[in-house]
Amino acid sequence: MDSGLYSDLPPALRPDESSKAWMNKADNAWQLTATTMVCLQSVPGLVILYGSMVKKKWAVNSAFMAFYAFAAVLICWVLLAHHLSFGDEMIPILGLPGSALSQGFLVGKYSLEGRVPMADYVFYQFAFAAITVILLGGSLLGRMNFYAWMLFVPLWVFFSYSIGAFSIWGDGFLEKYVIDYAGGFVIHLSSGVAGFTAAYWVGPRHSYDRQHFPPNNIIHMLAGAGFLWMGWTGFNGGAPFEAGLVASLAIYNTHLCTATSLLVWVSLDMMVYKKSSVIGAVQGMITGLVCITPGAGIVEPWAAILMGVTSGLVPWYTMMILHRKSAFFQSVDDTLAVFHTHAVAGFIGGILSGFFAKPNLLKMLYPDNNLHIGLIYSFSDGRHRDGIRQIGYQVLGAAFITAWNIAITSLVCILISRFVDLRMEEDDLEIGDDAVHGEEAYALWGDGERMNQPLRLRMNGRIPSLLRRLV
Hints:
The protein is mostly helical. The chain contains 20 helices and 2 strands. It has a two-stranded antiparallel sheet. Helix 1 (25-53) runs antiparallel to helix 2 (59-86), helix 1 (25-53) packs parallel to helix 4 (118-137) and helix 10 packs parallel to helix 13. The radius of gyration is 23 Å and the shape is globular. Residues 461-471 have low confidence and may be disordered. The chain crosses the membrane at residues 29-51, 58-80, 121-141, 148-169, 181-202, 214-232, 244-266, 278-296, 302-323, 335-357, 391-416. This is Ammonium transporter.
């Protein structure tokens, strides 16, 4: 805009020179709001959820793992990972490296059709990357060496998350074929598989912790879960990058599916175990949120309800029944059952999106792509082969994300283990937060003073049952 044209006007009457002609202020405002909501899911949402869902002696360490990851991923993202995930193609699974720091890049529009600045896109996608790593960390709480975690976060973002994001969302080899509206595969299947794999390499918690691991604060746990649920409004509502019809439908479907899944999970708990579990309700909430994510803006509400029923049934069965009977699942200590709540629910959501994706909604989201169609609509449109092919593409996308995360997460863990132990020492596992950080979540004796370590170890040998109840 030529400011000289308006130099004779009073400042209050001059056009806003800070706005580009292509930028839509409503879309920009919504995108900034949605991004903030996604960030709040991690900080404070998962910080509170993790800090309260573990036993008292691991509250500080668990919360801080999430807090650290959020900061570390942001630096990694702007320095290198954003371009690896969404830059120009270097190879079919990875973009050209580069930084996202220059003003010229950040104030440009994020695509040819975009109506928000690239800065919105970079920060929104960072929020997705950060929450993926934090979700993964839920599998590792209560025993991972914090120094190993500090190394794990950037390595996993660079070599695992970036590849999944570029392959399905960037300009990668699956981008034109796989339906993944807001991250059922890229985020949730990825975090669930990687978390389970990393848990195998890190090893289990202390044997007593694995058998007795009650949450230290149920009310705070619900507060953290509330941040996660409400923040998903931005998670799925921000994916179209405009305040339009798809965003509105995505938000509506998100909460509809989540409520259904929660009620199904609680009902199953009551029928089988004769009690309604608050922890179970939170797990059902999470599986509903995860399941609807890959199809939130491209399915009708009745399909969202069916997805909620499925996300309440199947992960409940794999977690509450299959997990307890399977030697395979018992051999890996997945602290917060991230595999079931994210990998299983994310896979289900991705496959069901291939069934229920409605053509006219797909066209709004993918205007240049005529390949996508939900299987159930393909028969009425005379495109049944395309519908069957779409399910095949969804399975292919899930298989790629699963295989890549198993391989790269294993390599990252093996590499880190050459320099630092992945798992804490046994003595530190006995003590918890005080041994790792010199801090404790709650003062339960001595008016806030901490028990010194030699005395604690002596008491642990004399009265283990009492001390274990305290920690």
